[in-house]
Amino acid sequence: MEIKGKKVIIIGAARSGIGSANLLSMMGADVTITDKKKEEELPIIDRLSPAVKKKLGDYPTMNDADLVIVSPGVPLDIRPLREAKAKGVKIIGELELAYRLIKDNGIHGLTEAEFLAITGTNGKSTTTTLVDLMLKKGGFRTILAGNIGNALTEEIHKAINNKSTFKYIVTEVSSFQLESIEVFRPRVAAILNITPDHLDRYRSMDDYISAKAAIFSRQNSSDFLVLNADDETVMMMHESRLSSRRDSPMVILFSRNKEVKGLYSKGGTIYCHIPELSLHTDLINTGDIMIKGVHNLENAMAASAVAILSGCSIEAVTAVLRDFKGLEHRLEPVREIDGIRFINDSKGTNVGAVMKSLEGFSEPVILIAGGRDKEGDFTLLRPLVRERVKCLVLIGEAREKIKRALGDLTETILAGTLEEAVSIARGKADKGDVVLLSPACASFDMFRDFEDRGRQFKDIVRRLN
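Structure (tokenized):
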């Protein structure tokens, strides 16, 4: 990509926007960053290079730009982007920008690096982190970035400054990031699961599925695609989009329920059967995996497949599975009081995530849910709520909608604040019960983000007497 002297506009002044602006400015571009928010509303704007121009509070006209970089949170159909596209302005996202700069611009130490990409509705961060840890344990130099919280462009910037070399770039990629790719092609890609999410942004479930499917759109027969054999939507997507392609990636499956070519769980053991690598071996006893829950068994198998396909040793893979304790805000134990366990699952921002979480508990659950609705179908929770939820405590903008969907199944109480919800939940819980924060909603009605929500929950629980 020609960068030096080009007029580039960055839309969105969060992590990926700041990273893109600083990197492109360092490479000699004339960069302007824009955001609908004002400067005082942008917490990391102080990380911006002084050489980058700022136009904040609204989007400027972009018709005379040579290149526009769109942050993931910005829909591609906003008016300024439609107008710029009509004028022939090139519009890509930060993921595509990072890929092109690495593959086309000869950046020191990165040109030969291979991309590994993980997507799915739930489990992305845990799986991506596991892959990165496994590869590092196996002796590979890696970058961990993407939707997981580290902007790819910021990591590239650091690599250039430090003259670092890397073998793999391990990326968590969201549907929003995949909307704006053109040539992005990971050496190994994984799709963990697909359940309804972000339907406040997508016109239909088909549009959401299409965005996810873009992860393998440029892969060929020298690449690997790791898929969840137990997820009907994932397998239908694969069949409809790859069955007629001549040059399609090699598909490796993982499954909790059946024997497959790939990784599968049977009789308390995970087996690895990958003929392409001449691998036919047992991997690990499921009881030896540190992170618990059916969803984490899937995450463990997916991560192991990606790492093994990337050349990681079995020994490194199993060592990480035995030691990794999990990520913050993902079924994170907070505290036990009088035999009542308090669990922070603030990252459970959609219905599918809460279903996976509830499946992992045999104890009665007092479920704290609610927030900003993403047009989720809360009725999908009915069987699990009926079976496992002793009391439902609801907060946020979606609380009335959730009550209508689930309130007839169990005792349901509306709370005005998270602190009130925790107090109610504790009062309803008995010894042996679980108080679970797993909201099935976005956090932005009451909190900065899911991390802020989770940390406030933990603070409240830790103050309980």
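The two ends are 59 Å apart (CA to CA). The chain has 15 helices and 20 strands.
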